[in-house]
Design brief:
Radius of gyration: 23 Å
Largest sheet: 5 strands, antiparallel
Helix content: 25-40%
CATH topology of the largest domain: Ribosomal Protein S5, domain 2
Structural class: alpha+beta
Oligomer: single chain
Number of domains: 2
Shape: elongated
Distance between the termini: 23 Å
Number of helices: 5
Mean pLDDT: 95
Order of helices and strands: EEEHEEHEHEEHEEHE
CATH class of the largest domain: Alpha Beta
């Protein structure tokens, strides 16, 4: 059975790496979409307007299928990619890491930059609280009132969460089912005559 969990960070965290006078401040954020990236980077640019570079990388999706790395003026592949490499090696997703560099006057060279951005990103991850999250699929159940007890019992049997409910001429539940349990849970719910199931 394939895994239906992924690792992310619970709260924003920070890290730091110094080399030859240059300071690399790192900031890790839990994110859910690409739309969150630009405002966070812009805010850090405002807060650290004297910094030379604001490089970042992010991974999105349950298996990190969407990702991007940005060098922000550093030599190609020396900043964004090492940051992304840390997201991969720690196996976390739905995370953005921004590393802000204050130049110390001494050039670090390609290997020095790669090492600095890697270590700064790693420090932010080490300081973060990593949590495992379960991948769930959402469904809408529509049914008559006389089925409510049976629906509730089936949900309890499979540990299904109720995300939302509304009651008018009939009952309407929005539920979240753990991905690996979907097939069995839907089969059990499908045995209830008159129950309508819609995937969201």
């Amino acid at each position: 059975m394939q895994t239906d969990t992924y690792n992310t960070i619970k709260l924003p965290s920070e890290g730091l790496f110094k080399d030859k006078g240059s300071k690399f401040l790192s900031f890790a954020y839990p994110i859910r979409s690409e739309d969150e990236v630009k405002p966070i980077v812009q805010e850090l640019k405002k807060q650290h307007h004297n910094a030379r570079h604001h490089c970042f990388a992010y991974r999105l999706g349950y298996v990190g299928e969407s990702y991007r790395a940005n060098d922000d003026g550093e030599p190609s592949g020396t900043a964004g990619r090492p940051i992304l490499g840390q997201l991969l090696s720690h196996n976390i997703t739905n995370v953005l890491i921004v590393v802000v560099r204050y130049f110390g006057g001494t050039l670090l060279g390609v290997s020095g930059l790669i090492n600095a951005y890697k270590n700064a990103a790693n420090d932010a991850i080490i300081n973060a609280q990593i949590e495992e999250k379960i991948i769930e699929d959402q469904f809408r159940l529509t049914f008559d009132y006389h089925l409510q007890n049976m629906v509730n019992k089936t949900m309890k049997d499979f540990g299904i969460e109720l995300a939302n409910s509304s009651f008018s001429t009939n009952c309407c539940y929005t539920i979240a089912i753990r991905q690996n349990d979907c097939e069995q849970a839907l089969a059990a719910l499908g045995k209830l005559d008159g129950l309508q199931v819609e995937r969201l």
